[in-house]
Specification:
Oligomer: single chain
Order of helices and strands: HHHHHHHHH
Shape: globular
Radius of gyration: 16 Å
Strand content: under 5%
Number of helices: 9
C-alpha cells in the first residue's frame, strides 16, 4: 500500500509542470513518454538502491531517509521556474526532465525494500493518467502555479524521510 501512495506522491510534479505547459500537439506522445520514463527511472533507482543496500546494510534506512528528506526539502525550496513553451522541445526531452527525479527517489525506496513491481507499475499508470489529464484539462484545473502542490509533495517526502530514519 505504501508503494501506491509513494508512486502517487512522486507523480505530483507531472501535474504541476504539464498544467503550465503550452502543448497543442503530441499530448498522447508526451503522456506515453512520461509513463515509460516514469517506470524506467524508478526501475534503475530500485536496482541502485538494492545494490547499495548490500554495501550500507546497517546504514540503509538512515541513508534512504536522508535522501528522501533532502528531496523533500529541495521540492519545498524549489523556484517556480518551469518551461512555459514546449514547441521547441520534443516530447522525449520534456518527459525526461519531468521524470528524472524519480530515479533518486527510487534509490531510497530500493534501500527500504519496497515492492518494486507494484511501485513501478503504479508510477507508470499514475504518470500516464496525470500527464494526459493535466495536458488536456489544464484549463479546468486552473493552476496558475504549481507552488502549493509542489510544497505538499515536498512535505510528504520530507515526512517519509524522517519517519524512515526513526524506524
Amino acid at each position: 500500500m505504501i508503494e501506491l501512495f509513494s508512486a502517487g506522491i512522486t507523480s505530483i510534479d507531472i501535474i504541476v509542470v504539464y498544467s503550465l505547459l503550452q502543448v497543442k500537439e503530441g499530448k498522447l506522445a508526451l503522456a506515453l513518454w512520461t509513463s515509460l520514463l516514469n517506470m524506467l527511472f524508478p526501475f534503475l533507482g530500485f536496482i541502485t538502491g538494492e545494490f547499495s543496500m548490500y554495501f550500507f546494510t546497517s546504514w540503509s534506512s538512515l541513508l534512504s531517509g536522508i535522501l528522501l528528506a533532502l528531496i523533500g526539502i529541495h521540492m519545498l525550496l524549489q523556484d517556480n521556474e518551469t518551461v512555459s513553451e514546449s514547441k521547441q522541445l520534443p516530447p522525449f526531452v520534456i518527459a525526461l526532465a519531468v521524470c528524472l527525479d524519480t530515479f533518486s527517489v527510487s534509490v531510497s525506496f530500493g534501500m527500504l525494500q519496497m515492492d518494486k513491481f507494484i511501485f513501478i507499475l503504479a508510477s507508470g499508470i499514475f504518470a500516464f493518467t496525470l500527464a494526459y489529464l493535466s495536458l488536456t484539462l489544464k484549463g479546468i484545473l486552473g493552476f496558475k502555479t504549481g507552488h502549493r502542490l509542489r510544497r505538499f509533495a515536498g512535505l510528504v517526502l520530507l515526512i517519509m524521510g524522517v519517519l524512515s530514519c526513526i524506524r
